[in-house]
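Following up on my earlier thread - several people asked me to post the actual chain instead of describing it. Fair enough. Here it is, all 271 residues.
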Amino acid sequence: MKMVKSLFALLFVAAFALSLGAQDGNTPQIVIVDYMKATADNVGDYVDLENEVWADIHRQRQEDGAIAGWFFYHVRFSGTASEYDFVTVTTYDGWDKVDAAFTPGGMSKYWENLSEEQRAIAENTENYRDLVRIDVLVTNDFLTADHFDGENFPRFAMVNFMDVPDGGADAYLNMEKNMVRPMHEAVMKSGSGRSAWGLYSVVMPSGADRPYDFTTADFFNQWSDMGGADVDYEALFEEVHPNVSMDFFEDTIQSTRTLTRSECWVLINTL
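Reply from S.P.:
Thanks for posting it. Predicted structure:
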């Protein structure tokens, strides 16, 4: 049955991406997430590699319009037994940009622009880290607070991985967009410190072994903002959903998805 769900989700996301591109002339934003495990003796060298070599490559790609953005995160509270401890996130404006990036020779220009020292270091990337896996996502929604500063991207991200029942993608997206999103918006307007919220569909990998179908991310500028201690959630809920009970709200959330894991990502570098 998981395979049926995966096939349905893939077809649904493809249809959603096409419809998104057709609305208001928008192009779907594709997000490629690389999960990295730094080798034990080379953590510092790996961070330097991303900051001093690969960031330079991605900056050139962004200037050329090949990518929309690039972000380098550390997974806080990871340890030696963790599957990965670093993540890079690369965003593309449309599938054609993804296709160009993964076409043979698509990176040659940027490789050639490196100094000899940078090229020598980059050629040994696999000595510093293992590429554990890659996720390909489609951005379904992205909401920002009034104080969101695109030039200084939020430092912290709480990333949530969601498993959705067979055939439940439509119900899940409806829940996130019509019930949860208005609450996020109200919390941001309350001045809680939350800077942004994103909702993403997992396109690849697919298949029976995929443990989650969607991800969400809550973005914060400071660690202290993440608790939301100053937010009166009950008052906000009554204001946003005056005709909905809290029990119904919570039951709807729980019935449309299973939260399989949450992680805290700390931004190290971006363009």
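The chain has one domain: 2-270. That should answer part of your original question.
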